[in-house]
Every structure is written in C-alpha cells, then in structure tokens.
Design brief:
By secondary structure, this protein is of the alpha/beta class. It is built from ten helices and twelve strands. It is about 30% helix and about 25% strand.
C-alpha cells in the first residue's frame, strides 16, 4: 500500500512537542500511522501492518482506564517468555524476563547473537507479542491491544530507526520524513512544515530536496531519525543504528540520539554490538540466552565524552 491509497484519517491525543533548536518554528505532530520496511532480524514491516483495519481510531484517550495507563510511561516487562519453532525444534528466545526501563532514559541493549535482543525490541515495539508475561510501554499494556488498536498505539508511541536506513530512494529527504504523516488530518502544507522542522532538528534542513543516493550514510541515518520523530513518539527503538556507518558518522548519530533523549526526553532503547556506542547511553542492559545478565550504569561524564 502506498501513501494516499486510502483516505482514512487517524487522530491521536493531539500531543505535540516544541522543536528545540530548529531553524524554523513549529511543532512535531504526534499520532499518525507510520510506514517502515524493516530488514535484518528486526522483522519485516510494511504499510499493511500499520493500516490493517485502520478504520478504528485506536484506544480512547478520554477513557479513564486509558488515562490510568499513562501514569507509567517507561518500559516494563514482567515474566516475559517468547518461544519460536524452527525446523520442528522449540527455541526459547526470552525466558521469564523481568526488566524495568525508566521513562526518559537512554538504554543500550547488548549481548551475544541469539541472546534475545532483537526479540525484545520487537516486543517493546508491538511488532510481536510474548507467549506469556506482560509488556507495558509508554503507559500501555501491549497485550491488551489487537489489530487496528495496536497499530494506532504503535504509530503514536514508537519511532523505529534501523541499521539499513530504509529510505525510499525515489523520494527526497523531505518526502521520506513526511511519509508517516500521510494519513493524518494535516494539510499538505502542514505536513511539509512538520517534516522540515524534523529535518532542521537533525541539522539537515539544507538537504531537504536531496534523494538518499545524494546523501552520505550518516546523513541518510539522520533523515531516518527525522522520520522516526516526526510524529513525536515517546519511545525510540534503534536496531544497530550505527552498524553501517564509519566512526565519525556514527558519533554524529549517537550525539543526536543523546540530544533527543536529553532535551526532548525521549526514551531510547538501542541494540548494539559496539561498546563505544553503548557507552553513549545512560544504562547498558546485558542479555544472555534470553535472561537478564546485568544492568550497568554509565557515568554522565563518560556518556558525554565517549569516544572510540
């Protein structure tokens, strides 16, 4: 499905956030379906995933039960177990995992291949559901949502950043960033203003008309981050966001994630194998064979000045 294939308009709670340090004044609009095409182990996402049964408006923010959920805006996993079947064999990827991540903190998730990092990211992003246990993100128990309600929550509350950028090559940076706003009630002019504000936020306002092939890898990832934040989500989920970048470009992306966390109070969860990248977070969560290993507190001065 392409933007414009349906005229469904999704409206959320109407929360917006002032653009900090942007060259143009404006707000970043929240609550709109997003499209991503994920690669690697982080599942495959398409327009249909977000717009399935999209006639629903999602959870009612005026409902007292919904408002009660919003009191806890962090990430809480309790007794989470996830098992996959491969070749007739049961593989337990997460094993009775308990983990609490505070709102507005920057977490790095580390562990060897097969430790459950990607699966955990999928569960937190509502791309998959646990076999048992509960997952609460940004004040919402994800297991209580299905279909359109889950898609609406995900579009409002979570922004995704991937290792491979996943930009559409025939669209400009501005058009890529504006894609998540395609099915909102915003006018074309308003969508353009919000996308420009997001690009300014990542210091790429002067590259708005460039296509991905005309950008460096680091610039492409910053465009992808602008796309992730254009709806003003509470949580950013980053799957190896610096994996395809050289050190200098990686440092720029990590500094941007730190800024989004520190100044805009986004909760950031970043999967990485890079110790230098993990050191830019505030806490490092270690997973091993589907279980919680340790949580390491990173000193503020270390995170601020972490370099390879």
């Amino acid at each position: 499905m392409r933007p414009g294939d349906t005229d469904v308009a999704h409206e959320g709670p109407g929360v917006s956030s002032r653009v900090m340090g942007a060259g143009r004044s404006g707000t970043l609009h929240q609550a709109s379906p997003q499209e991503w095409s994920c690669d690697g182990g982080f599942a495959t996402l398409c327009w249909a995933l977000y717009f399935h049964e999209s006639g629903s408006q999602g959870p009612d923010a005026s409902n007292p039960e919904t408002r009660a959920h919003s009191m806890n805006e962090g990430i809480l996993l309790q007794g989470v177990t996830k098992t996959y079947s491969r070749g007739g064999e049961e593989l337990r990827v997460l094993d009775n995992l308990d983990l609490t991540m505070d709102e507005g903190r920057f977490y790095a998730l580390m562990g060897p291949s097969g430790s459950g990092k990607t699966t955990l990211l999928n569960l937190v992003g509502g791309l998959d559901l646990p076999d048992s246990g509960s997952v609460q993100v940004a004040g919402q128990d994800i297991r209580s949502l299905r279909g359109a309600a889950l898609s609406a929550w995900r579009a409002r509350s979570v922004g995704f950043v991937f290792q491979g950028f996943n930009l559409i090559p025939v669209l400009s940076a501005l058009e890529n960033v504006a894609l998540p706003l395609a099915l909102t009630p915003l006018s074309r002019k308003e969508r353009r203003q919000h996308a420009l504000a997001a690009l300014d936020l990542v210091d790429l306002g002067d590259r708005a008309g460039h296509r991905p092939g005309q950008l460096s890898g680091g610039q492409e990832q910053r465009v992808a981050i602008a796309r992730a934040i254009v709806t003003d989500p509470k949580v950013l989920l980053c799957d190896e966001p610096t994996g395809d970048l050289d050190r200098a470009a990686a440092d720029q992306v990590l500094a941007l994630l730190q800024r989004l966390n520190g100044e805009m109070k986004k909760t950031v969860l970043m999967v990485t194998h890079d110790a230098a990248a993990a050191a830019r977070a505030q806490r490092i969560v270690h997973l091993d064979k589907g279980r919680l290993g340790s949580i390491e507190e990173v000193q503020a001065e270390q995170a601020a000045g972490a370099k390879p």
